[in-house]
Every structure is written in structure tokens, then in C-alpha cells.
Write a structure and sequence with these properties.
This protein is mainly alpha-helical. It has helices spanning 2-5, 8-25, 33-57, 83-98, 107-141. It is found in: Endomembrane system.
Length: 146
């Protein structure tokens, strides 16, 4: 059962919910919270959609723990090896800001740690095994996050 729900969107939703609770309990409202938060949310969603579409065009999976059929290195994947996870982080920051949950912002580092340890490291090992030198060259020139 736990493996059935151990997916990045579930972690994202959990961290968002906790941040929302912090925002209600300890709101820190600044004049531009709504605007900045909305921009970050939109940016995160756009990045997520673009990256997912690029993976779909390449006919490879967007689902963690599945073996990819192709390696995507162009477009937004030139900026980050993990643009969907980066989009999750941007979206989460945007939610915290929009919800006046600035006190929850340090949880972003915990979210990054969870995503990296539970998903990214395994994905990188699988990519290295499947694509060898091609992946190693990509990894050498493209950062994990940004």
C-alpha cells in the first residue's frame, strides 16, 4: 500500500498541506505575496507541462521507478536534469508565498531532500545503467536541479 502512494505528487501535496497549515497558524503577509506566489505557481505549472510534453514526445515515461525508453536532453532538460522536480519546488514555493506561509519556506529544503533521496538518486542510477556514457556526458554538463 505504501508503495502505491509513494510518488512525487503525493509528497508535493503533503508538503503543500503542511505549509498551508503553517500559513493559517502563523501567517506572514507581505504586500506582494499574492502576486509573487501566483507567478511562481504559474511558472512551476508551465515548466512541469513543458517537461512532461517533451518526455511524451520522446516516448518515454514520466512515472518514477519505471525504466525510460529514451533520454531527453534538449529543451528544458538543458537547464536541469530534473525539470519536473524543479517545477514541483517552484510550485511549492509559490503556494507557500501565496498562502502567507513564509514560515514554512525552510521545508523546501526538506522536500528537496525527500525527492532527491527517494526518487532522483534511483532514477540517475537507472539512467546511467541504461544509457551509460551518453548519460554520463549529459550529467557532466547539466546540473541536477538548476
Amino acid at each position: 500500500m505504501a508503495k502505491d502512494v509513494d510518488f512525487p505528487p503525493v509528497w508535493l501535496a503533503g508538503f503543500a498541506a503542511i505549509g498551508g497549515l503553517f500559513g493559517r497558524a502563523f501567517p506572514v503577509h507581505l504586500a506582494l505575496n499574492d502576486v509573487v506566489g501566483s507567478i511562481l505557481i504559474l511558472l512551476g505549472l508551465v515548466l512541469m507541462v513543458i517537461a512532461a510534453l517533451q518526455m511524451m514526445v520522446a516516448r518515454t515515461t514520466v512515472i518514477p521507478r519505471r525504466n525510460p525508453d529514451a533520454m531527453v536532453t534538449g529543451g528544458v532538460f538543458r537547464l536541469s536534469r530534473n525539470p519536473i522536480y524543479l517545477a514541483d519546488v517552484i510550485l511549492l514555493i509559490g503556494l507557500y508565498v501565496a498562502w502567507d506561509a513564509l514560515i514554512a519556506l525552510p521545508m523546501i529544503a526538506v522536500f528537496i531532500y525527500v525527492i532527491q533521496s527517494r526518487f532522483i538518486l534511483d532514477e540517475e542510477a537507472r539512467l546511467s545503467e541504461l544509457f551509460g556514457e551518453e548519460y554520463d556526458a549529459y550529467r557532466a554538463k547539466t546540473r541536477r536541479w538548476l
